[in-house]
Design brief:
Chain lengths: ~475, ~475
């Protein structure tokens, strides 16, 4: 019996915390890490008689997002009440958007790593994005059988971004989540801090035999706060569902939690005990009306978006799609790259890209530093690239100079090259002298080469470079050596 | 002195023939002597009143007094008052002291009015007889075996019994106009959005509106003018310029077109009420107004629409009373759910529970369209009826209540009978229009009858002007009940 070929279907709901100063319906601060309940005002703790007032900054960020994904910014959207009882939900309802969300449609184009070193293009369509308030936090530790409630987070503005069920693997889901993460930071609506809960993913996962038109029954994995957990949880869930079906079982619609310690998902509640949230329009808030003037103003303030910049990098600088996407993964990286190119010249754009994505990225990674905190400035890196381009130094020497810049041994590439005598030797007379010495000392290799062993030639080049302490121009060494042996 | 008009009291204060402290003392003495019979007050704040009176006297002395400075007043216990109990007529909030003032309370404090106490009301403003209060029923000053009306029955009774010259109330389905009618005083509910709801404990947010009680239309105008105005803390508060509600007091009635809705006079009114209402309308005609018959064909649907929308909003508004952060919490409970159930079961009375249950039901999945959405459609039709009627007239007149005050306990076992008493008042709230009730004579048992005047949006001054002209020619509003003193 042949095994069924299963197709995976994934849709993501991502809660992004908007980086406003104050809460979505009150004036209290949303700064992270304060003492419990000091950032909860009367509105947040739902005193009798208090009323919500919408924070325009949150709306503005939603508009920014809508424009960035090519969505429709709804001219009129409505806040609704989602009713349920929980101690960290002081009003007994959450104000959210239900039937009429502020952002409708849109899409994100991304590159998905194919697992073989390459990548393929993928478009993920968005269903909607809506504004809502966050709940507080229940603290179950340190209270001796009681539960503590911290309402600092209550009322924090969230934009819940809902995708279509367009993803077909955990890799696609992660690539989408990463692209969205990059985008919300790019347009400066969310700080993207996943540890602090600023970017939380819920994944709806189902499987179906490939070719089947209707979707399988889905289970929703809640509250994944890292890309690794997202991947692990989805992979586990997929296998769990396939195993269940192949063992003759049926997937029941449910909400599940992922346990990072065991790497497993477990059901939290089934469809039967799903809440009836009794949504209805919040009579305390008027419909949110966004006129075209507001949209135009926000549009005018939007930075160049990653997709446009990536296209520009490919068109103007001749970068590959992969490189252009990598360099536009964050606004900071893109800005750094743009600064390097501006100083080093567009003709060296490809070399600049290689350095930013290669040595610099590796070094930053190792040091766990953000590119904005890079010890090597864009100007310094541009200076280095310029010396490679004009043959003052080879690539090998350039790596040395880069390390020296990193550890602050000199102000600039030029200063380091000068101080450490790293200038490339391009005087053919000097190179010839070195080669002669090397040939004389390595007769065995010469004979091997003449006997047809190509590898011996490379060994001789290596010896010449070594003898010049890496400073000889490698191209010239090649050329002269070839002549002498020829 | 506190039986005089606000104008006369203010003049006496300015002339120093009386002091604010004397007025407050008089008011407190009246409460002391009379409220044992009436139970109009939940809380009397003698210390606060005398302190406010001393401050008012200082303002009168330094010339910074306004028309309300030094005037004793009572607030319905639905308005939050910093440092003074705000019970909302409920066991749930029997121990609740607000840390802030409602907007209306702040405005009247700033105007120098002297709050002597908080008045009794139907629990959470749900009721038409003041019998659902945790503090016990309020009695009608004209006959203490009768109800005063509700839900602002305490305020109406306090003014009628001459314990205070003015009082605030709220009107969600008639809760200012109906007790004004049953207690023989004047009460006005302005256009929805004119008086801030901030700090006014919500019953049904889209219908709740603060209002004013006084013996005369002229005094109502003074109080209401001080209460109205834009408040950025209430998103439904209208941002516009608010006129002096007394601007049209001197306007003669000649040329005023009074519309009489056919449906209001068809059936349901008791004979004694009809006689008084007809006589009052005849008086308006005698004073120069012209009468036109108008139609409100959907008026009969107002009660069913109201008793869907108001409970729906109430069921959600009252969710915050969960015993977690303030208010009543059951002494014994086994877990969180048990705490919610017991605290709410103990804290809320039967009428509140009934409306929470109805509201929860009509918002439930599968019933929402049939009830809530349908009721919203009716609401629009009702508003359209008024708009059409106002093309033929300036003011609509009719009865406020189908009968005079009924006996305590007479309708408590039949809530639907009690709901039907709101037949002439609820449509106004559904449409958001301003309306008042003024004394129009007496019916069976020597009990007062009210005439309701309904105006176009923002035409509060016209309504009060018409009522004032009527009161210049009649003396119903000057009649006082004989309250037995302790």
């Amino acid at each position: 019996m042949s095994r069924t070929d299963w197709e995976v279907v994934i849709g993501l709901e991502i809660h992004t915390q908007l980086n406003t100063q104050s809460k979505i319906f009150s004036g209290a601060s949303i700064a992270f890490g304060a003492e419990p309940n000091v950032q909860a005002c009367g509105v947040d703790i739902a005193l009798p008689g208090v009323l919500p007032v919408l924070n325009k900054g949150a709306v503005e960020r939603a508009i920014r997002f809508g424009l960035a994904i090519g969505a429709t910014v709804a001219p009129k959207s409505v806040f609704a009440r989602k009713n349920y009882f929980y101690p960290d939900l002081p009003k007994g309802y959450q104000i959210s958007q239900f039937e009429l969300p502020v952002v409708v449609g849109g899409h994100i184009d991304l590159l998905v790593p194919d697992g073989k070193g390459g990548a393929y293009e993928k478009r993920v369509n968005l269903t909607r994005a809506h504004l809502e308030e966050d709940a507080g936090k229940s603290l179950h530790e340190d209270f001796h059988g009681m539960t503590g409630i911290d309402l600092n987070r209550a009322g924090t503005p969230l934009l819940e971004i809902v995708s279509e069920p367009d993803m077909r693997s955990s890799a696609e889901a992660v690539a989408y989540a990463r692209a969205l993460h990059a985008l919300v930071r790019w347009i400066d609506i969310c700080d993207g801090n996943m540890q602090e809960g600023s970017f939380r993913c819920d994944a709806n996962v189902s499987v179906r035999p490939r070719g089947q038109a209707e979707f399988g029954t889905r289970r929703e994995i809640k509250n994944l706060n890292s890309f690794r957990f997202l991947q692990q949880a989805i992979d586990y869930e997929i296998q769990w569902q396939i195993d269940l079906i192949e063992d003759g079982g049926k997937v029941q619609q449910a909400t599940v939690l992922f346990d990072p310690d065991t790497g497993e998902t477990r059901a939290m509640r089934s469809k039967e005990d799903a809440h009836d949230y009794r949504y209805f329009p919040d009579p305390d808030l008027l419909p949110l009306v966004i006129d075209s003037a507001w949209i135009e103003r926000v549009k005018g303030e939007l930075p160049e978006l990653p997709a446009a910049l990536s296209a520009r990098f490919q068109g103007e600088y001749g970068l590959s799609a992969y490189d252009a996407t990598t360099l536009t993964a964050s606004r900071e990286t893109a800005q750094y790259y743009l600064d390097v190119v501006a100083a080093a010249g567009a003709a060296n754009a490809k070399t600049c890209a290689n350095w930013v994505m290669g040595d610099l990225a590796a070094r930053l990674n190792k040091a766990e530093l953000d590119i904005t905190a890079s010890p090597v400035s864009a100007a310094q890196l541009a200076g280095l690239v310029a010396r490679i381009a004009d043959n003052t130094i080879s690539n090998a020497i350039a790596k040395k100079v880069f390390e020296a810049l990193w550890s602050g041994e000199g102000e600039s590439a030029d200063a380091i090259i000068e101080a450490q005598g790293l200038k490339q030797v391009t005087d053919s007379g000097a190179i010839e002298a070195i080669i002669d010495e090397v040939l004389a000392a390595n007769q065995k290799s010469v004979e091997e080469f003449r006997a047809g062993k190509e590898k011996a030639f490379n060994a001789l080049v290596g010896q010449c470079m070594k003898a010049s302490k890496g400073k000889a121009n490698p191209a010239q060494v090649n050329e002269i050596l070839k002549k002498k042996l020829g | 002195m506190i039986d005089s008009s606000l104008k006369d009291i203010a003049a006496a204060l300015r002339a120093k023939t009386v002091s604010a402290v004397e007025l407050a003392t008089d008011s407190l003495a009246r409460i002391q002597a009379r409220d044992g019979q009436i139970n109009a007050f939940v809380t009397v704040d003698e210390g606060g009143a005398l302190a406010a009176a001393r401050a008012a006297d200082a303002r009168i002395k330094d010339g910074s007094a306004g028309p309300l400075t030094g005037i004793p007043l009572a607030h319905k216990d639905v308005f939050c008052t910093e440092g003074v109990l705000t019970t909302c007529g409920s066991k749930m909030l029997a121990n609740f002291t607000s840390p802030y003032d409602a907007h209306v309370v702040s405005l009247l404090k700033a105007a120098g009015a002297v709050m002597v106490g908080k008045t009794n009301m139907d629990e959470f403003a749900m009721g038409s007889s003041n019998e659902s209060s945790h503090a016990g029923p309020t009695r009608n000053p004209w006959d203490t075996t009768k109800v005063p009306g509700g839900s602002s029955g305490g305020s109406a009774a306090a003014v009628a019994a001459r314990m205070v010259p003015i009082a605030t109330g709220t009107d969600t389905g008639g809760s200012v106009r109906q007790p004004a009618a049953l207690c023989g005083i004047t009460g006005i509910k302005p256009t929805y959005g004119s008086v801030s709801r901030f700090g006014m404990i919500a019953y049904a947010s889209s219908l709740d509106q603060g209002g004013a009680f006084a013996r005369s239309a002229e005094d109502c105008a003074t109080l209401l003018t001080a209460m109205m105005g834009h408040d950025p803390r209430d998103s439904t508060s209208l941002e516009r310029s608010y006129d002096d509600c007394g601007a049209s007091l001197a306007q003669p009635l000649a040329g005023l077109r009074i519309g009489l809705p056919r449906e209001f006079f068809a059936e349901g009114m008791s004979d004694d009420v009809r006689a008084a209402v007809d006589a009052a309308i005849a008086e308006y005609r005698r004073l120069g107004a012209t009468l036109v018959e108008v139609s409100l064909p959907n008026a009969r649907l107002a009660i069913p629409a109201y008793y869907v929308i108001a409970p729906a909003e109430a069921s959600s508004n009252l969710s915050r009373f969960d015993g977690v952060r303030y208010g009543h919490r059951a002494a014994q409970y086994t877990d969180l759910n048990d705490m919610y159930c017991k605290s709410r079961a103990e804290g809320f009375g039967p009428e509140v529970k009934r409306r929470i249950l109805v509201g929860t039901y009509v918002l439930s999945h599968g019933y929402y369209d049939a009830y809530y959405i349908k009721a919203q459609k009716l609401r629009r039709l009702i508003a359209q009826d008024f708009a059409a009627a106002f093309e033929q007239c300036d003011i609509i007149a009719g009865p406020t209540n189908p009968t005079v005050a009924y006996g305590l306990g007479e309708k408590t076992s039949d809530p639907v009978q009690m709901y039907l008493g709101d037949i002439y008042t609820v449509a106004v709230n559904l449409a958001g229009l301003p309306a008042l009730s003024h004394p129009a004579g007496f019916g069976a048992g020597g009990l007062p009858v009210g005439l309701q005047l309904i105006g176009k949006y923002f035409h509060e001054a016209n309504l009060l002007g018409a009522a004032h002209q009527f009161q210049q020619a009649t003396d119903w509003h000057t009649r006082a009940p004989a309250v037995q003193e302790a």
